[in-house]
Write a structure and sequence with these properties.
Elements: H1 3-23, H2 29-52, H3 59-72, E1 79-81, H4 86-94, E2 96-99, E3 102-107, E4 110-116, H5 121-125, E5 132-136, E6 139-140, H6 148-152, E7 159-166, E8 171-178, E9 180-183, E10 189-192, E11 197-201, H7 209-223, E12 229-233, H8 242-252, E13 258-264, E14 271-274, E15 286-290, H9 297-307, E16 312-315, E17 323-330, E18 334-344, E19 375-377, E20 383-385, E21 394-395, H10 403-410, H11 413-424, H12 438-447, H13 458-472, H14 476-494, H15 497-500
Length: about 500
């Protein structure tokens, strides 16, 4: 065994021993033997691998695999954040990062610029949606899709050289882009729905979300003296900082009201968060729009407004994430984001829908059954339930795309056509009120003529079930011709879907 390998084992074992001593401060005596035993087993396994495995082992990769597997057994929100991932973590928390201000993802195995954010370096340098990224600072990026964001991010003021290919103009271009602090904002839009109703979109609960929502609301009030109602849209909002959920709730509820409390295994960590400032407006009618993907802090705000009967919740049942994460610094400039508590809104309910502590034999987890949900009451005595997200006061149907639309989106056919369409236009295109003419739509249909966008309709799924049942009941011979005929008719009718679902 080499000296380096021996040193690495000794250091690793020493670190595990230190961690065992640290854990003793927080664990009952009955657990100490099990902790010590399993850490010793883990150390022994690592020692044997490091010494005798047929190939050299990358300790960083092996340990990261072990850490990720360990955390995966707990819940999806407990994560290890390496030093290299710190910039991405910063973006999640603050909405800020040092970079070029563009979204890049693989399309047809090519790294493609899909979004260019207004006012940031990518736009200033002339990058356009649809451009293919070939290299970054001379490095070929065709095979490093997962690390591309790390290459593009960096300190504000630093320069990055990009080589791109513009397919529809058949141009290869080199651009020098100066990185800036990029802040995508958490209130991407606010305005008036009509003469009396204001509308604010909140996309994420990052730093200053409360201040930005408040400023948007005050501006709408100032510019529209007859403002008679506000819509706060948190559809698709995955949540974020707990304190910003408190700040946003405080805009509409009185000072000193309980907003949320957190309860953990360590009683000293339990906290109750109150609204600490005078409310901006406690009277204006308020509607919160939710969807199935409104989660965490979004659900706190919606739940607070519902529990105090301060407004009405409209949309679909929210996601059901009532877990609180705390980020703790660990060694070598890394962090551990771990679930430390559950949160409870003013009525006393926790909206967490999944109990990750109780798993099925196959490792899967299920949602809390209705029979185990507990009833609570709002300020006015309305009944609400825990354990499954926020139920809207007014339930609306979700706008689901039809099968052909989903197929075109997944295949990136709409994105590719729009990229070509914009490249071929010489005039400016106004987004407000834009629509394709019949002639342009026919051009889109023609563009798709040699593209693969096959999909399975609900009718075909029903027919599959019928065919399987017929085979099970030994009726295939009697029904085979009819089923085959129906399949032909469905296939012929699907060819008309582009025109059938034009609008």
């Amino acid at each position: 065994m080499t000296l380096i390998k021996r040193i690495s084992i000794v250091v690793f074992a020493s670190l595990l021993v230190c961690s065992t001593l640290f854990l003793t401060a927080f664990k009952p005596v009955s657990d100490l033997f099990e902790i010590s035993k399993n850490i010793d087993i883990f150390t022994s396994v690592y020692k044997e691998l490091n010494t005798y495995y047929v190939d050299d082992i990358d300790p960083n990769k092996v340990m990261r695999t072990g850490i990720d597997a360990m955390l995966e057994s707990l819940d999806p929100y407990t994560n290890y954040i390496s030093e290299a991932e710190m910039e991405g973590y910063k973006f999640q928390v603050t909405g800020n990062y040092g970079g070029i201000g563009a979204t890049i993802r693989p399309i047809d195995d090519r790294l493609t610029i899909t979004d260019v954010f207004e006012g940031f370096p990518a736009e200033k340098s002339g990058l356009k949606a649809g451009d293919l990224l070939l290299s970054v600072d001379g490095f070929d990026v065709s095979e490093i899709n997962n690390e591309i964001s790390e290459l593009l991010r960096g300190s504000p003021g630093s320069k990055v050289l990009l080589k791109i290919f513009r397919p529809y103009l058949d141009q290869e271009i080199e651009l020098e882009v100066v990185r800036e602090e990029v802040n995508l904002g958490n209130v991407p839009y606010y305005g008036m729905v009509n003469d009396k109703i204001g509308y604010i979109i909140l996309s994420q609960f990052t730093d200053n979300a409360g201040r930005n929502v408040e400023n948007a609301f005050l501006e709408l009030k100032e510019e529209n003296p007859e403002l008679a109602g506000i819509i706060l849209d948190v559809r698709g909002n995955p949540g974020g900082l707990l304190r910003e959920a408190v700040n946003i709730s405080n805009i509409f509820i009185d000072k000193g009201k309980e907003v949320v409390s957190t309860r953990s295994r360590i009683a000293e960590w339990d906290k109750t968060f109150l609204s600490i400032n005078p409310a901006v407006d406690t009277e204006i009618p308020l509607a919160i729009l939710t969807s199935r993907s409104s989660a965490s802090a979004s659900e706190i705000v919606a739940g607070v407004i519902q529990d105090y009967d301060r407004g009405v919740i409209i949309g679909q049942k929210s996601f059901g994430k009532g877990l609180v994460q705390t980020t703790r610094d660990i060694s070598y400039k890394t962090k551990l984001k771990l679930t430390t508590a559950k949160y409870y809104i003013p009525s006393g309910r926790c909206i967490q829908a999944i109990n990750y502590a109780q798993r099925n034999e196959d490792g899967s987890v299920g949602k809390i059954p209705d029979s185990l949900k507990v009833a609570f009451t709002t300020n006015s005595g309305r009944t609400v339930y825990d354990g499954g997200g926020i139920d809207p006061d007014i339930l609306t149907e979700e706008n689901n795309y039809n099968k052909i639309t989903l197929s075109l989106l997944r295949g990136n056919h709409i994105f590719n056509y729009v990229t070509q369409y914009v490249a071929e236009r010489t005039d400016s295109i106004e987004s407000r009120g834009f629509s394709l003419s019949d002639e342009e739509y026919n051009s889109f249909v023609e563009y798709l003529s040699d593209k693969d966008y096959d999909y399975t309709t609900e009718t075909e799924l029903v027919l599959d079930d019928l065919e399987a049942t017929a085979e099970k009941e030994k009726r295939s011979e009697a029904m085979g011709k009819e089923i085959a005929s129906l399949r032909e008719k469905i296939a012929a009718d699907k060819k008309k879907d582009l025109m059938k679902f034009k609008y």
